[in-house]
Amino acid sequence: MASFFPTRDILGAKIAICTSDAAIAFLLGELAARRLTRVAFSNANLLTVLTGTPEGTRLLDDFLVLNDGVGLDVASKLIYGAPFPDNPHGTDLTPALLAAAPKSTRLFLFGARPGIADKAASVLAQRFGLAICGTRDGYADAGDPARPVATIRAAKADIVLVALGNPRQEQWMARHGAELGAPLVIGVGALFDFLAGVVPRAPLLVQRIRLEWLWRVAHEPRRLGKRYTIDFARFLWLVLQQRRSKR
Ligand code: UDP
Prior knowledge:
- 46% of the residues lie in helices and 16% in strands.
- By secondary structure, it is of the alpha/beta class.
- It binds uridine-5'-diphosphate (UDP).
- The site of uridine-5'-diphosphate has 14 residues, from helix 8.
């Protein structure tokens, strides 16, 4: 898919060069035109994990891929000499998009542990007055990932938020995104957990100095420790290889 925005290639993924505001304006246009647009917020971990899969980062070829986090800026600086113009990550961009969407927009929340999507849906309905047309947890269909498709399709959603963690959510969206009948299909990671209040977000100051990742590791060291040490070292090594081959 030709990208609406100029892009930078990082480990084979075409990352859009755009601000959060420009991405939101674009997505509202796609929603109004009912054009299928899959959105991936790509952090260093997603790209590193994808490079180890048979499809690789080509899985994201049909997505609007937005940069998420410091790792992508480090990669961009190393390869292209400049960071990205903004940090349009999903935890802030998705609520901002929902705030700007027409009030008639029908929203489906798919993913997270049982009960969490329902709680997140109540918060979003209250905050933005959107119509919640369905929720489904992210574990009930573990044996048959195609099963939620019919339910989501029947709900006639305009926006489907998919929270299965990465790269599972991107793989699911690549395979099933076009079958859902919804124009916007967005991978949102831990957003439902944040909205439901089961995972605390970093204080604003920590977010501003771009250390939210450290806050998350401190809260979930066993799950995220490897991601931000060994996996990040592998990401840097791959980025340096790309820089060398570019020269
Ligand atoms: N999740 C899910 N099904 C799974 C694995 C994960 O619904 O099989 C949910 C998990 O409960 C969480 C969300 O995916 O709400 C994001 O997970 P994680 O924090 O791992 O996201 P990441 O940081 O990897 O994007």
